[in-house]
Amino acid sequence: MCEDARDIGRRGLFVAGAAAAVTVAGVGFAAADGADRETRTVRGTLPTGSPDFVYVPVEVPRGVRELRVSYTYDRPAVPAGTAGNALDIGLFDERGTGLGGRGFRGWSGGARGEFFVRADDATPGYLPGPVRPGTWHVALGPYTVAPQGLAYELTVTLSYGEPGAAVRPVYPPERARGRGRAWYRGDCYLHSWHSDGRRTPAGIGALARAAGLDFVNTSEHNTTSGHAHWADVAGDDLLVLLGEEVTTRNGHVVALGTDPGTFVDWRYRARDDRFGRFARRIRRAGGLVVPAHPHATCIGCAWKFGFGEADAVEVWNGPWTADDEVALAAWDATLVASVRTGRGWLPAMGSSDAHRDPDVVGLPQTVVLADDLTRGAVLAGLRAGRSYVAESKDVSLVFGVSGGRGEHAGIGERLAVGRDTPVTVRLEVSGAPGCTVRLVTDQGVLFTGGPLPASGTGTVEWRTTPAYAAYVRAEVRHGTTASGAPGALAAFTNPVFLGHA
To answer: GO molecular function: any one (predicted)?
Structure first.
């Protein structure tokens, strides 16, 4: 049986506390009369300029064991430079589509053409649980719409019968064996097949161990379905933190190290003034708010919410690119502003954002000084900026500043000495053959040394005063490009601040 949805251009839009959305003609089912399964199909067309989310109601009767959805949409040719059709999809149950996600049951974006939910199981990206009677909603997200419009076909199948036994989620522990207070390596931004990745959690765990990582953070797009699938991956040698990549139309943010099952809604734009509410939700759940790839050029990727709610910022995302160079410069400007205003500063991080082969897990990796290999200790070290970022397990740094009377401060700390007190900046590098060392301050690059020998090991020292340099941070770079621009990073540190605050 097929039904035609009205073109949304003929219906009024509404704002559900956030981004514009619309509800179109839906799918109705009557209680099954001896049938094991019923299927309904609905078609519609979304015009250019569609709202961010289109909700298709599905009337679910009693006695449903499984709800299954499949969809297709057209992809007409478009002129060069014009975005074609891309349609995301997700599901909300009878508790509704209100902002905050009480009725949220899953999201697969554009990664899948079909999904199901039932009490004992669900497609990756979706949450298992009972299919209760009431009005459910399939959520369509027209990411981009071609000038010709976007014609879609949505098919819903209900299977009747006794529900399976509910699944009790088991989450990874918040502690691994660790080495006490030490430097721990982690990748805080990874995707499995629970969103648009192609790797299983077990496969990612194996790659993380091979990359020399001590911890990882799960970060699927707009879903927490993977949280209950990492317990077997964690171990004494690998701490698994849980999170989400909150993928809005105005930028992406990593919810890092939240309580298990913490869902963070993404259905708003910067102009809706809703991000602060969800940033606070991340922190209440024990996590960190980390804007991801803030200067990426893909549609919807560049960060538009400002950094007032951030706990850290991702400066290096995957293999080093021009976007990362811009992010590094912009972050350094925030350090200068913090010195000028006397306000707090924003630590930098790096992550792989790995999805599938050939993406490299642990390129780059954030190396954090933590009191132990626990969720709380790792997050505390990241929040304090006691960290540096390296391209692999082979690259290690020791960086600090000392005064003449035995004073010392390391990465993320402050050396509280007088403005004219001479201080010595020292950087020890290993695993970076042929690389150049740069020391960067609020005045810019004030020291360049190298290249490092074939062994990749070397030490540089530089003397300054707090009056001359309000902070100093280190960069280790590969050789300059053919155009003479600085080479890709092999590693960089968070700053050491100099002088009294």
So the answer is: 5'-3' DNA exonuclease activity
Residue 381 phi, psi dihedral angles, 5° rounding: -65, -40
**CA 435 to CA 281: how far, in whole Å?**
42
Contacts of 271 (CB under 8 A, 6+ apart): none
Residues 307-316 have a mean pLDDT of: 98
- Residues 470-493: tens digit of each pLDDT: 999 999 999 887 777 889 999 999
* Fold designation for 2-160: Jelly Rolls (2.60.120)
Question: pLDDT value at position 25?
Answer: 75
- Residues 81-114 as b or e (16 or more Cβ within 10 Å = b): eeebbbbbbbbbbbebbebbbebbbbbbbebbee
- Nearest C-alpha neighbor of 498 from the set 439, 428, 431: 439
Residues with Cβ within 8 Å of 86's Cβ and at least 6 positions away in sequence, in order, are 110, 142, 143, 144
Q: Can you give the pLDDT at residue 3?
A: 52
Query: What band does 12 get if pLDDT is binned at 50, 70 and 90?
Result: very low
| CA dist., res. 136 & res. 213, Å (int) | 41
Query: Is pLDDT at 16 greater than 50 in this prediction?
Result: no
Annotated domain spans of the chain: 2-160, 170-393, 395-501
Report yes or no: 224 and 254 within 8 Å, Cβ to Cβ. Answer: no
pTM greater than 0.85: yes
CATH architecture of 170-393: Alpha-Beta Barrel (3.20)
Q: How many residues does the chain have?
A: 501
Judged against a pLDDT cut of 90, whether residue 450 lies above it is answered with no
Q: What is the dihedral of CA 322, 327, 330, 335, to 10 degrees?
A: -130
CA distance 302 to 318: 16
- Band the pLDDT of 45: cuts 50, 70, 90: very high
Strand 313-317 and strand 348-351: the pairing is parallel
